[in-house]
TrEMBL record:
Named cofactor requirement(s): FAD; heme b
UniProtKB keywords: Copper, Endosome, Ion transport, Iron, Iron transport, Membrane, Oxidoreductase, Transmembrane, Transmembrane helix, Transport
GO cellular component: endosome membrane; plasma membrane
GO terms of molecular function: cupric reductase (NADH) activity; ferric-chelate reductase (NADPH) activity; metal ion binding
Organism, as annotated: Gadus morhua
Keyword Signal in record: no
Topological relation to the membrane, as annotated: Multi-pass membrane protein
Protein name (record): Metalloreductase STEAP4-like
GO terms for biological process, alphabetical: copper ion import; iron ion transport
Annotated Ferric oxidoreductase domain residues: 244-374
InterPro entries: Fe3_Rdtase_TM_dom (IPR013130), NAD(P)-bd_dom_sf (IPR036291), P5C_Rdtase_cat_N (IPR028939), STEAP_metalloreductase (IPR051267)
Keyword field contains Secreted: no
Taxonomic lineage of the native organism: Eukaryota, Metazoa, Chordata, Craniata, Vertebrata
Length: 460
């Protein structure tokens, strides 16, 4: 009995397809095609010794197999395409599907598909299936592997491949002519594309603040006080850099939202596209937030470590030995430090909650309203708590001239700039008059300019 995917119509008259190459992809694709109701014939260099093939498939030489089908799927690496020239007479007028990928970018002057087309000019080459994998064809594709990018110069050939992909349960995205094949062939080489910008930001901020604090703390002490406190790099410095980067990145998650709102208010409509950079920024907010959460985790772990540090234990012992009489208890300090810790812990708890709700399995279980409540309302509350935590950390240190070593502000002060700006702007956004305008714009209302020269409402 065939295991045809649910809801898929079988191909008319059990169409015969030809696959060149009996390797990993050839076999997996053949098996899926057979399950979907196609007949499959393989073209192989060694039809009698090519190893196990999906039951029901035939195997013969390339020349014989090519004659039988109108569509030939070439599951062979580009390096071996030269054998195709021998089969050229049998491939005349056929649809050739190029599934190949490269192991590196820019390996060849032209795309594999265009190269194949130049070898067999009498056939119609279509680029497809290079983003699926042999593994996902056998185990059921995940969302990332369900998309097939299609390009080719002949409309009928493309249509034939589109139908084929659709019957296999894959979703097809048309990328245009065969000249787009180069771009399509590079897709599988991309490594975590949506993480690239957040990772660059995280690395840049970490490097900047590490060197900034290294100069202010370690090098300053060495030059001005002749003290070697370089050991502080490992924990003290790290535990300043991590929360700083975390807070800035968290605020960068919420900055584009506020900017988008300002842009909508300024334009008086929601029907105009945001600039590309803003779109791109908004799309990587989840990754920015998850990285920020990672840095916050590091900050928590490093903070828990403080009491068992040699340096801290030494200080405590020395202090207890020297001060015979107990120090005066300062209620303000007690309030400040307790609030600082408490706000930090609450902020972190919400931070973790935000991280959990961004997991697809959790966010899929939420309604849109629930999701936006958590990510927007609780998100801004998290930012508020974490910013407050940093203000409490600084407290009145900004009044002391000794804080500004070599006339530079301390790291925590620098890192408060973006979150404070975001929070103030957000506060302005929730003022009743602004909130009302924004609400109307988001429901489709458009501002008409002075003397009727403004935009007209768009038909939805
Ligand atoms: N594996 C995957 O998940 C994916 C692979 N692809 C692409 O599919 C193509 C095939 O990949 P894959 O199946 O993994 O590779 P394999 O190495 O597993 O198989 C390649 C097949 O090509 C044939 N072949 C090898 N050398 C020659 C030659 N000199 N002349 C003619 N035919 C030859 C062989 O079949 P025979 O012995 O029968 O002639 C061989 O089994 C590649 O271009 C790859 O980039 C694309 C997406 C995913
Ligand atoms: Fe902290």
């Amino acid at each position: 009995m065939s295991l045809r995917p649910l809801g898929m119509e079988p191909p008319p008259e059990r169409e015969l397809l030809c696959i060149f190459g009996t390797g990993d992809l050839g076999r997996s694709l053949g098996q899926r095609l057979l399950q979907t109701g196609y007949r499959v014939v393989y073209g192989s260099r060694r039809p009698h010794s090519c190893g196990p093939l999906p039951p029901g498939a035939q195997v013969m030489s390339h020349t014989e197999a090519a004659q039988l089908a109108a569509v030939v799927i070439v599951c062979v690496h580009r390096e071996h395409y030269d054998f195709m020239e021998e089969v050229a007479p049998q491939l005349k007028g056929k649809v050739l599907v190029d599934v190949s990928n490269n192991s590196k970018k820019g390996l060849y002057p032209e795309s594999n598909a265009e190269f194949l087309q130049s070898l067999i000019p009498a056939a119609s080459v279509v680029k497809a299936f290079n983003t699926v994998s042999a593994w996902s064809l056998q185990n059921g594709p995940s969302d990332a592997h369900r998309q097939v990018f299609l390009c080719g110069d002949k409309a009928e050939a493309k249509q034939a491949v589109r139908e084929l992909a659709t019957r296999l349960g894959l979703s097809v995205l048309d990328r245009g002519s065969l000249s787009a094949a180069r771009e399509v062939e590079d897709f599988p080489l991309q490594l975590f594309p949506e993480w690239r910008l957040p990772l660059c930001i995280a690395t840049g901020l970490t490097a900047f603040f590490f060197f900034y604090l290294l100069i202010r703390d370690v090098i300053y002490a060495y030059v001005e006080q002749d003290k070697d406190i370089s050991f502080r790099i490992m924990v003290s410095l790290a535990n300043k850099v991590f929360p700083i980067v975390s807070l800035i990145m968290l605020s960068l998650c919420y900055l584009p939202g506020v900017m988008a709102a300002i842009l909508q208010l300024y334009r008086g409509t929601k029907y105009r596209r945001f600039p590309d950079w803003l779109d791109h920024w908004m799309l990587c907010r989840k990754q920015l937030g998850l990285l920020a959460l990672g840095f916050a985790f590091l900050h928590v772990l490093y903070t828990l470590l403080i009491p068992i540090r040699y340096y801290v234990r030494y200080k405590v012992t020395a202090h207890t030995v020297i001060s015979k009489q107990t120090a005066v208890f300062d209620t303000t300090s007690a309030w400040r430090t307790d609030s600082y810790f408490s706000v930090g812990i609450l902020g972190f708890a919400l931070y973790v909650l935000l991280g959990i709700t961004s997991l697809p399995s959790v966010s899929n279980a939420l309604s849109w309203r629930e999701f936006s409540f958590v990510q927007s309302k609780l998100g801004h509350l998290t930012l508020l708590l974490c910013t407050l935590h940093t203000y409490l950390y600084g407290w009145n240190k900004f009044l002391r001239p000794s804080t500004y070593k070599w006339c530079t502000p301390p790291g925590y002060m620098l890192c408060l700039v973006v979150p404070s700006v975001v929070l103030v702007l957000k506060l302005l956004m929730v003022l009743p008059c602004v909130d009302r305008s924004l609400g109307r714009i988001r429901q489709g209302w458009e501002r008409t300019g002075p003397e009727g020269e403004g935009t007209k409402p768009l038909m939805a």
